[in-house]
């Protein structure tokens, strides 16, 4: 088990945004977190990734308690994430965006930087070479010197994943990576997530595209109004009456993949 979330809760005033949610994920596993609008999916991500501090419960990464650590500390320990809204530097090149994500792996020396020693140039070349490798993984190698703002929307989504991978995470949190993408772009994201998991990286995914979720997930966690509702394989979740009711408000047998 690489990531364990234990009885996590957070409140904003009288509102319990997350109320006692627990789950775990192993290396190479894809766990999707789904639920109706307002279920608390992104809030849960923000707690896990250190953006918010939990009111109760805790988070363990590789067996160590990392509850309340700042995002940069979590990144140094092997957790990286993307965000629902694009967080790229549009006036920087595609390669430079990934190089920013690589800074945790660089050997830094203040005096070497100040004096512009040859080691600084070598470090920059190594960082760029690594960035290009990660761009190759997401299918953007040929766009390395293009301004990030000139990429397609789907390209920007893949760029964010490349930058997250540049930290060499053991756990990757993806917040709606296919949101706003067309069918072709979504298929590219689909394949990319599977390749990431095949490298042994645990992927925790929040996504509204149920076709993608049902296709690539090993397990699915369902939230409703901040609380645990169900967990299981895609087949188990698809047939769960409580999930149907949460999405549509009735116990019929709807096609959950279109929720």
Quick structural overview:
By secondary structure, the chain is α/β, with parallel strands linked by helices. It contains 10 helices and 10 strands. It has a 6-stranded mixed β-sheet with strand order 6-7-8-3-9-10, with helices on both faces. The chain has a 4-stranded antiparallel β-sheet with strand order 2-1-4-5, with helices on one face.
How confident is the prediction overall: mean pLDDT?
A: 90
Per the CATH scheme, the topology name is Rossmann fold
CATH superfamily membership: P-loop containing nucleotide triphosphate hydrolases
Unreliable stretches: 251-259
**Over all CA atoms, what is the radius of gyration?**
19 Å
**Architecture, according to CATH?**
3-Layer(aba) Sandwich
Distance between the termini: 30 Å
How many helix segments?
Answer: 10
Largest sheet: 6 strands, mixed
The general outline is: globular
Strand content: 15-25%
Helix-residue proportion? 25-40%
CATH class: Alpha Beta
Following the backbone from N to C, one meets helices and strands in this order, namely EEEHEEHEHHHHEHEHEEHH
Structural write-up:
The structure is a single chain. The chain is an alpha/beta fold. It has one domain (3-258): P-loop containing nucleotide triphosphate hydrolases (Rossmann fold, 3-Layer(aba) Sandwich), CATH 3.40.50. The chain is built from 10 helices and 10 strands. The chain has helices at 41-48, 71-77, 94-101, 110-115, 118-137, 153-165, 183-198, 210-216, 234-238, 241-248; strands at 3-12, 15-25, 30-34, 56-61, 64-65, 79-81, 171-175, 202-206, 219-224, 227-232. The strands form 2 sheets. Strands 6-7-8-3-9-10 form a 6-stranded mixed sheet, with helices on both faces. Helix 3 (94-101) crosses helix 5 (118-137), helix 5 crosses helix 6 (153-165) and helix 6 (153-165) packs parallel to helix 7 (183-198). Mean pLDDT is 90; it is low at 251-259.
